[in-house]
Design brief:
Blueprint: H1 2-19, E1 31-32, E2 39-41, H2 43-51, H3 55-64, E3 74-80, E4 83-88, H4 90-103, E5 115-119, H5 131-149, E6 153-160, H6 165-176, H7 185-202, H8 207-218, H9 222-245, E7 252-255, H10 257-261, H11 264-274, E8 278-281, E9 284-287, E10 298-301, H12 309-321, E11 326-332, H13 336-348, E12 355-359, E13 362-363, H14 379-397, H15 403-423, E14 431-432, H16 435-438, H17 446-465, H18 483-493, H19 495-505, H20 509-528, H21 537-560
Length: about 575
């Protein structure tokens, strides 16, 4: 709804500027939210510079030329110094309520748009996902959900490293040490991988065996390839279990080796050579990207002729470029340099570049993590710890409920707390995940938002039981005139613009913040305004309808964040 409000404000402002005898580009209307209006424009500042006139006088002149058409979402327009303020009409408020009730889970969805191929997580299959990995998964999955709601067709991919050095170590380890298959498969792989690295540190001569395995894979040795595939398949099966518990699903798992087997890696190396950018450095083939601002060269072939992860990644990106209109990669901060070099190289050979979302790392109060050294807390262990703590809270709050109910709610609250606490921070900021704070119902994290949704469900259920509400009855939204009612309606109306903003800027934390603010607005409304206890039947019906609107948009927000919306807590 807010996008419609903004579109109408844009049309009205452009018409008034033209009527006042002025001209300005649409991009220079400079709309922003304001505490003094529903929408404000700084266009007068820009016009003052263009026409060498006083911005305050220009704002007044433009407002005097404003014409608001009948049936507009804009109620009135006023000048406040150099600012031009737009205020929503009653029609806007009423239409927001009726539209949410009509569209339900579709409310906030954009019109169909382009196809996007989004890659995220892509952790090496040398052990289970740990806390350091899941920020990638959560940001990537939430972005995919936001983009889909915004109208894009999104395919989510996981790029599987099935032939690099780390996988050679895993394969070597599986031959050398016994796998404990009573464990989750990715944990069993981690055990032997850690043992193998300790062995390699003690006996560096074994490194030659690792190099030999990598050469055999590139040469197409069937036995070695099968050994790599078996180890990778085991690890990936465990990783998929973890992702599913986190409510993260990939549409496709794409193996690195695919592009070596197809000849795509060889082809792309030859195309890069044809640019004249390559040279030999200590036997390795490197790419000069100095004209793109990179002092460091990019290695695309080792001295023994084998390819690198980067080389195969270039071939993967060429393939992706033909699969979608846009490509988005979610990478950790340690990929900042290499992702920049990858984009530059693709640009140099005329291939569509990916949009890259770089995130800083998440850690636990215990410190940083390394699978190689065996110093990590797996995502599975974290989820168990968080849901166990959530279960204690549910048992305290709802002791009368069944064990099954308690466990179900604890899982929803625990996983929701993890997802929300990680995604609420802007990707470019590092964060420490403190699971105790994330589970605090008073801290306005996921449990707070989930509880607000459950409260709305409870209110509506109680109203049904007391025969105080007929969901199918016609309502009169214009009866919602209290400040907290209007504030809640306006917050609900913002949902489509929040989705639009998060999709355009690839910033999932924007939605997380909105969901918390929506829960705040709903709780403020319920605190100050009687709902079921309202004496006037029509007012009661309108307020229950507003509770239902809040429930719908809270559920839509949580779903887009990948968080369950429990009906009871």
């Amino acid at each position: 709804m807010f996008l419609e409000l903004k579109a109408q404000a844009t049309s009205i402002l452009k018409g008034a500027i033209q009527k006042a005898g002025l001209e300005i580009e649409d991009s220079e209307l400079y709309f922003e939210t304001s505490s003094y209006a529903d929408l404000a424009s700084r266009a007068a500042f820009r016009l003052a510079g263009l026409y060498k006139q006083n911005p305050k006088e220009l704002a007044t002149r433009i407002v005097s030329a404003v014409e608001i058409p009948d049936g507009s979402c804009i109620g009135n327009v006023s000048a406040s110094g150099p600012y031009i303020n737009f205020h929503a009409s009653r029609l806007y408020l009423d239409r927001t309520v009726t539209t949410v009730l009509e569209e339900k889970e579709k409310f906030g969805c954009g019109v169909p748009k382009d196809k996007i191929l989004l890659e995220h997580t892509s952790a090496n299959p040398n052990g289970p996902l740990h806390v350091g990995h899941i920020r990638n998964s959560i940001i990537g999955d939430t972005l995919a959900r936001i983009l889909r709601r915004a109208g894009y067709s999104v395919e989510v991919q996981y790029y599987v490293n099935d032939m690099g050095r780390q996988i050679a170590v895993v394969s070597w380890a599986c031959e050398r040490f016994e796998l404990d298959l009573s464990k989750k498969p990715d944990s069993a792989i981690a055990d032997v991988y850690i043992k193998a690295n300790a062995e390699l540190d003690k006996n560096p001569e074994y490194v030659k065996e690792i190099d030999a395995l990598m050469e055999k894979v590139e040469a197409g040795d069937v036995r070695t390839i099968d050994s790599f595939n078996n180890a990778v398949s085991l690890a990936i099966s465990g990783i998929k279990e973890t992702l599913l518990r986190l409510n993260v699903v990939h549409d496709k798992f794409v193996n690195e080796s695919t592009f070596l087997k197809s000849g795509a890696v060889h082809d792309i190396v030859e195309r890069i050579k044809a640019t004249g950018r390559t040279k030999t450095d200590k036997g390795a083939l490197v790419v000069d990207l100095s004209d793109y601002g990179f002092k460091k060269t990019l290695v695309i072939q080792r001295s023994n002729g084998t390819s690198l992860y980067t080389t195969r990644d270039l071939a993967y990106h060429e393939w992706k470029a033909g699969q979608a209109d846009r490509i988005i990669d979610v990478f950790g901060a340690d990929h900042k340099l290499i992702s920049g070099q990858l984009r530059a190289t693709l640009n140099a050979i005329g291939i569509k570049e990916p949009e890259v979302v770089i995130f800083e790392f998440v850690s636990l109060p215990e410190g940083s993590m390394s699978t190689r050294r065996g110093q990590f807390i797996s995502a599975d262990d974290l989820f168990d710890r968080v849901t166990e703590a959530a279960l204690e809270q549910v048992e305290t709050r709802r002791p009368e409920t069944s064990c099954e109910f308690k466990k179900q709610v604890a899982e929803m609250v625990g996983i929701g707390a993890v997802r929300y606490d990680i995604v609420r921070v802007s990707p470019e900021k590092s964060t420490v995940f403190n699971w105790k704070e994330a589970l605090d119902f008073e801290k306005q994290g996921a449990p707070y938002i989930q509880y607000s949704h459950a409260r709305a469900c409870s209110i509506l259920e109680k109203a049904k039981e007391e025969a105080a509400w007929d969901p199918s009855a016609k309502i009169e939204p214009f009866l919602l005139v209290e400040d907290t009612e209007i504030d809640l309606i306006k917050k609900i109306a913002l949902f489509d613009s929040i989705i639009d903003l998060a999709a355009r800027e690839l910033k999932p934390h924007v939605l997380a913040i909105y969901a918390r603010e929506l829960a705040d607005a709903f709780n403020q409304f319920y605190r100050f305004v009687p709902v079921i206890a309202a004496e006037d039947e029509k007012v009661r019906a309108a307020r229950l309808a507003l509770v239902n609107c809040a429930r719908i948009v809270l559920a839509n927000s949580l779903d887009t964040l990948g968080i369950a919306a429990p009906e009871s807590m």
